[in-house]
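Researcher: Sequence recovery benchmark, item below. Answer with residues only.
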């Protein structure tokens, strides 16, 4: 038996239970990871909020890091004792072979909020040695999403100006760090005065209130790339600041799905709008190499013990965090 946080019996965070679950052995091509840390993502909340009574219980959590403690038949990638980090995107190996819906660890498959997790061998990669266990445990879904959004889909180049509305969560903070690392200019927005003060320690050009006049703050035609995770609440303002031939890459819709697109503001200045979600195994490896090359450390918001995961999700649900929330897995 292993200790785990399961979601069962109720919608949202109130469906979480700290309990013991049956342990199992890895099958052909799989490895079993004894987890040291895990990370939370907004995706976890979306999944839990969409579930209700009678649904099959599962273990949430997509991010995690630990050591290989068992291997299945035919495993050639990794040995017992290896320190690894988990790529949570399942069954998507190459960047151009995009699945209809990427499979992701932690829903519906059991995830990382447990003492151990079993994954395909190719999804266990060597942990970057410069990262602490807490940092490695949050370094997966968010930086993978940020990397693909910036470079694969957004084609960001050194010297360009990227705008990241809604700074605070893991994807946005990783994107700001990555963009700055290649010499891009980075501007961010937030509704929170506290977050705007906190991000002054990050390598960004400017941070301003989401409700202010963007054209006055940035200047008309100043932005090459916008990373949009918000949707309708901010979308109309993008066309006040984006350059001709600029790009908008969308990876979320925290304010809703329905967007009105001004057609002439797209075709006259020849704006590109692209969607993205998570990333491939190929991009995951490139992301780890990029992070290591530039010695990028995740921005850590807070750390909780596994048994206190409900409190961690409550902080995330309030949008109280700046950066990543790590979960410590019991080792005794």
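Model:
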């Amino acid at each position: 038996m292993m200790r785990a946080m399961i979601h069962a019996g109720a919608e949202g965070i109130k469906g979480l239970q700290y309990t013991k679950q049956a342990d199992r052995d890895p099958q052909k091509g799989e490895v079993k990871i004894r987890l040291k840390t895990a990370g939370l993502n907004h995706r976890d909340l979306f999944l839990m909020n969409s579930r209700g009574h009678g649904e099959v219980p599962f273990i949430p959590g997509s991010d995690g890091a630990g050591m290989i403690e068992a291997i299945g038949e035919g495993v050639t990638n990794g040995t017992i004792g290896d320190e690894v980090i988990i790529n949570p995107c399942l069954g998507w190996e190459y960047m151009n072979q995009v699945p209809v819906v990427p499979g992701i660890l932690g829903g519906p498959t059991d995830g990382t909020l447990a003492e151990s997790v079993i994954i395909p061998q190719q999804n266990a990669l060597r942990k970057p040695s410069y990262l602490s266990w807490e940092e490695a445990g949050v370094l997966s879904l968010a930086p993978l999403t940020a990397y693909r959004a910036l470079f694969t889909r957004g084609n960001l180049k050194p010297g360009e100006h990227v705008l990241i509305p809604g700074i605070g969560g893991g994807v946005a903070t990783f994107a700001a760090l990555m963009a700055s690392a290649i010499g891009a200019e980075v501007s961010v927005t937030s509704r929170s005065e506290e977050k705007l003060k906190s991000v002054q320690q990050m390598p960004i050009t400017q941070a301003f209130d989401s409700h202010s006049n963007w054209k006055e703050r940035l200047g008309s035609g100043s932005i090459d790339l916008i990373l949009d995770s918000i949707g309708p609440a901010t979308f109309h303002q993008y066309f006040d600041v984006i350059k001709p031939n600029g790009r908008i890459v969308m990876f979320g819709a925290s304010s809703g799905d329905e967007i009105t697109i001004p057609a002439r503001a797209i075709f006259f200045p020849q704006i590109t709008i692209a969607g993205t979600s998570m990333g491939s195994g190929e991009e995951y490896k490139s992301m780890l190499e990029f992070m290591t090359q530039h010695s990028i450390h995740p921005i850590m918001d807070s750390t909780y013990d596994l048994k206190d995961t409900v409190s961690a999700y409550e902080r995330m649900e309030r949008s109280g965090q700046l950066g990543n929330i790590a979960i410590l897995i019991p080792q005794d």
